[in-house]
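A student in our group prepared the protein record below, which I am reviewing. Here is the record exactly as it was handed to me.
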Amino acid sequence: MTPTQIADALVAASVNAFASTPLDRSRLQLCAPLAPYTTFRIGGPADVLLEAQTADELATAITAAKLAGVPWFVLGLGANVLIGDRGIRGLVIRNAAAAHTISPEGKLWSESGAVMQDLVLDTVRAGWSGLEHYIGIPSTVGGALWQNLHFLSPAPERDRTMFIAEVFESCEILAVEGDRRVVDAGYIKFGYDDTVFHHRRDVVLSATFQLTKGDPARLHQILQENLSWRGSRHPWLQVHPSAGSIFKKIEGVGAGRLIDQCGLKGFRVGDAQISHIHANILVNLGHATAADVRALVAHAQAAVTKQFGYELQPEVGFIGEF
């Protein structure tokens, strides 16, 4: 199907999906570049791109794609993914559903496209604790649940890992079977960088978190300390775009340490480079392609296997056609 045929099929199917909210043909972008919507600033075009402004629009678009037999992919902030140079076939839904509220009892309800940093700042300003640990990590709510977002506990101890699961109460999903349902942590099966969403194609539409009252001064201190800590150890996205850690954690060793010990900091293929600051982060120096990144990934894997015998497994998702 051509992009035009895909768009027409989606509009027609959306009437049957949810008659009250059919897709607006004028909002479907054809052959839309995806690089601007990723933190890597890399990626070819989507056949059709839609920006979903509400959870209902997100559900409608996915259901319409299923009815029309069109492949679909939901894109949040575009972190932790590498989109192929040839792009993505079918429909890409950019999740911009960002409505959120905080109750007097500290329950935060948010649509899944809300940016975590916005929620962190809103809750800290209101004196609610629970999300301040995740300042500076590029993610939407949906992405945070997908990966069980985590960061080290506050300074100076930083003695344990804190997970978004600790404040999670429930979420509404569009289940792979097609129905909308509210599920709890037992369904999500939170693990380290793992949840049910890695194993079932359910999509988070909204989520509820239970926060606790906090001292605003202490919360702001945590924000400042965490931003400073991350800034000294991670390349700045606005200058050197990246997808975050490129390889999965190796317990007790660290993928970045192994790559560093291979002398690969600063090594580059085209405009893709292993960061001088953090060896488990690959950066885009300006005009890197997905092919450059894939070649650099393969080079790092081969070097670590040859020198240390470990097999590095990518943490980022390779999406689309390369």
In short: The chain has a mean pLDDT of 95.
